[in-house]
Amino acid sequence: MIIQQLSESTEMYLKAMVELSDREMVAIGRLAERLSVTAVSTNEMMRRLGEQGLVKHTPYKGVALTKKGREVACNVLRRQRLWECFLYDHLKIEWTQLYELACSLEHATAPEVTEALAVFLGNPKTCPRGNPIPAADGSFVPLNGIPLSEAAVGATVRVLAVNATATDVIQHLFERGLLPGHKVKVVEAAPLQGPLTLCVDPPEKNGAGGKETVLGLSLAEFVIVES
Fold it and tell me: Above pLDDT 70, what percent of the chain?
């Protein structure tokens, strides 16, 4: 797949759209929030990307990647998540720092380096945060999960992935043990969109054990659990 040279800013916008929604429309406001930029800046970037045939804008609904845009975005995502694997498995970088450090490397990685890195790592399917790594052709199987914010009260679910990008949010989730592979029981959901009371790693049977924590719904959206 031949990928044209794009600016770092353009790549970040396209990658964020895949992270937020693989196939569906993404609201301009949600994309701006994800990238910590203004809605005005996001609208202008979407206009430029539309002129390049990378996104399609539907008024009052949002924006979606075109086939060409999705190929570019998945290529960026592949580079970033492969670097996460390398940093974590071979350089023993702290889990909470992986996303930010990998982002600084992804934009300067040539296709030849990307594929050599994939071979060196044994072609991993997921990154350390549990998210799927696109194949060289851009394809990947989305996680069969839901945000923790949608899990039913009383349910015990297993964390599949953490798709947060801000280091402080990742650190917050890490400190509460909300990591891939861990089980979480939704103990209580406060009314009026209030926080969730959770028990992380609850005991298999009735008895002491587990770590109780409270998590706001907006943060719970970043934790993907089995559906």
Answer: 95
Domains assigned to the chain:
1-140 (1.10.10.10), 145-226 (2.30.30.90)
- What gap in Å lies between CA 10 and CA 26, rounded to an integer? 16
Beta bridge partners of 198: 186, 213
Predicted confidence at residue 23, as pLDDT, reads 59
End-to-end alpha carbon distance in the chain: 33
Residues in Cβ contact with 44 at an 8 Å cutoff, skipping those fewer than 6 apart:
none
pLDDT, mean of residues 166-180: 96
- Nearest-angstrom CA–CA distance, 70 and 95: 27
Pick 207 or 186 by higher pLDDT: 186
Q: What's the CA angle centered on 130, arms 149 and 70, to 5 degrees?
A: 90
Amino acid at 63: V
Q: How far apart are CA 215 and CA 195, in angstroms?
A: 5
Work out the angle at residue 104's Cα, subtended by the Cα atoms of residues 101 and 110, and round it to the nearest 5 degrees: 120
**Residue 201 in contact with residue 209, Cβ under 8 Å?**
yes
The pLDDT of residue 1? 45
Query: pTM score, two decimals?
Result: 0.88
- Strand extents, DSSP E, 95-227: 145-147, 156-162, 183-189, 196-200, 211-215, 223-226
